[in-house]
UniProtKB/TrEMBL annotation:
EC code: 3.4.21.53
SMART domains: LON (SM00464)
GO molecular function, one term: serine-type endopeptidase activity
GO BP, one annotated term: proteolysis
Top-level taxon of origin: Bacteria
Name this polypeptide is given: Lon protease 2
Residues in Lon N-terminal domain copies: 11-204
Keywords: Hydrolase, Protease
Cited InterPro entries: Lon_prtase_N, Lon_prtase_N_sf, PUA-like_sf
Length: 214
C-alpha cells in the first residue's frame, strides 16, 4: 500500500513512553486528551492517515525536544468513538522514520519533519529469520511466562509466522522503555529476535533486582 518515496515529509507525532509500534504490526491506543483527539481528526483527513509513535528520551542522544531520534509511523486502520468522545484506535505499522527537526505550527499536537531513508524494507514483504530456533525460543518463553505467572494462547503462538511472533512479543512484553527502543531500532528480524532473547534471559536471571530464578 505504501512506498517509502511516497510517504510525507512532515507527520504528527505521538510521544508515549513504553509504547512500541513495529512495521506490519498493530498497536491499540486509547485517545482522550484534546490535543490527541485533534491529531486524530487531522490524520483522518489525510490520504495516509499516518501518526508517528516515538518515545520520549530524557537522556543523551535525544533528538528534537527530548525525543528519541527513531520512531515508527502507523496508519489509523480502525477507530471507534465512545459516548464521551474518547477514541479507541488501532495503528498498523507502516515504516520507521528518523526525526530531522520538530515543526512549529498552530496545531495543539507535535509534528516533525522526518526521513524515511534507510527503512525501505519496512514497506516491503514480511522479514525472514533464517536462523530462528522456534522450539528453543518457545521453551524460553514458557519459562518467562511461568516466572511471571502469565497466561497465553500457545496454539496461536505456535502457529504465528516468525515476524508476527517476534514483533508481537516485542510490543507486548513488559520491558523498560529503553529496551523497547532497542527492539524498535534492530536492523533486521533476526537482530530483533536476538535482542528479545537477551531481554528475556536477563529477566529470568533476576534483572531489575528481582529474585534470581533457580
Amino acid at each position: 500500500m505504501f512506498n517509502t518515496a511516497d510517504l510525507p515529509d512532515v507527520i504528527p507525532i505521538f510521544p508515549l513512553s513504553g509504547a512500541l509500534l513495529l512495521p506490519r504490526s498493530r498497536l491499540p491506543l486509547h485517545l482522550f486528551e484534546p490535543r490527541y483527539l485533534a491529531m486524530l481528526d487531522d490524520a483522518l483527513k489525510t490520504p495516509g492517515r499516518l501518526i508517528g509513535m516515538v518515545q520520549p528520551n530524557p537522556g543523551p542522544g535525544k533528538s528534537a525536544q527530548g525525543l528519541h531520534a527513531i520512531g515508527c509511523a502507523g496508519r489509523v486502520s480502525q477507530f471507534s468513538e465512545t459516548e464521551d468522545r474518547r477514541y479507541m484506535i488501532t495503528l498498523t505499522g507502516i515504516s520507521r522514520f528518523r526525526i530531522k527537526e520538530e515543526v512549529e505550527g498552530f496545531t495543539p499536537y507535535r509534528r516533525a519533519r522526518v526521513s524515511w531513508q534507510g527503512f525501505e524494507p519496512d514497506t516491503g514483504p514480511p522479514d525472514d529469520d533464517c536462523c530462528f530456533d522456534r522450539s528453543a525460543f518457545l521453551s524460553l518463553l514458557d519459562r518467562y511466562f511461568q516466572s511471571r505467572e502469565l497466561q497465553t494462547d500457545w496454539d496461536t503462538l505456535t502457529q504465528a509466522d516468525d515476524e508476527l511472533l517476534i514483533n508481537s512479543l516485542s510490543m507486548l512484553l513488559g520491558f523498560e522503555p529503553e529496551d523497547k527502543q532497542a527492539l524498535l531500532e534492530a536492523p533486521s528480524l533476526s537482530t530483533r529476535r536476538e535482542t528479545l532473547v537477551t531481554l528475556i534471559e536477563y529477566a529470568l536471571r533476576g534483572g531489575d533486582d528481582e529474585e534470581i530464578m533457580q
